[in-house]
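ARCHIVE CARD
Drawer: 12
Card no.: 0347
Subject: one protein chain, sequence and derived structure
Cross-reference: see card 0346
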Amino acid sequence: MNLNTPLTVCALVCGTKGANFLEDTIEFLQPTMVYTYRQKGEGSDYLERINSLSQRYGFQLEMKNRPSFQELKGYDLCFVVGWQFLLPTTENLVIFHDSPLPRYRGFSPTVSQLLNEEPCLGVTALLPSEEPDQGPILAQSLVDISYPITLQEALTALRSAYSACAKEVFDCVANGNPLVGQEQDETQATYSIWRNEEDMWVDWEQDAQYITRFVNALGPPYSGAKTACYGRTIILNRVEPGPEMTFEQRTPGKFWSIRDNIPLVICGRGTLRILQAQESSGEPVNFTVLRARLSKYR
């Protein structure tokens, strides 16, 4: 590689994480090609942001979730962020995973870390491997967080970690070094399971602190934590733990009180205030009936 020749960079980015990454790294990566696609479960805001960057910086933008080997092999580096489709393995491919690998391999790692109340979040840049998220590590960056924290806030906090990893990898190759990573320690590996709509339902048998993290971790850009109330499905937007109370017979999911349209719900341990909730139509929920019981499924 000629050190006097600028690197050619391709970015494969999708979702809020992908748009954040592109905004934060475009000045030093200067990609000439960007691939993206419409991701199920997210709105179109990230697509508008990526398109706006294309118009401003002049890179080529293509809507394609499975670019070919021939399309990718000609670049010095291909950065992959928020991608949910299999890609052809090329020696220039750099995968970004939002966890401190080898922990939290797999799906929705940031959500899993928030549910587990991890004190810090991480981003890892790694080489592709036969098994997902098991390739050699090129760079890793951690970010301290505190609770309560929403998913949107967590993704914002991770922006600096993504940028730091991208800069480290980019500078390494720009200085003429090969992409050689450190093998992961298999004895430290943990896994994060995939999630779907069934996993969005609140389990009122859990304690109030966990349910608060659950609601915060499943908010935007995702569809939100759900519960059945008054015979219909509602989405919980904002909640907070209530007072500790001793009930002679504890029945999780039942309302104990409603004040100023804020119900106090009995949980498996502790109580929870629902500060804001919405119907599936987007209209705010009016909590009018005290003798109601929230349930996991409608």
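Annotation on reverse: Residues 197-279 form a domain with the Methionyl-tRNA Fmet Formyltransferase; Chain A, domain 2 fold (CATH 3.10.25.10). The mean pLDDT is 95.
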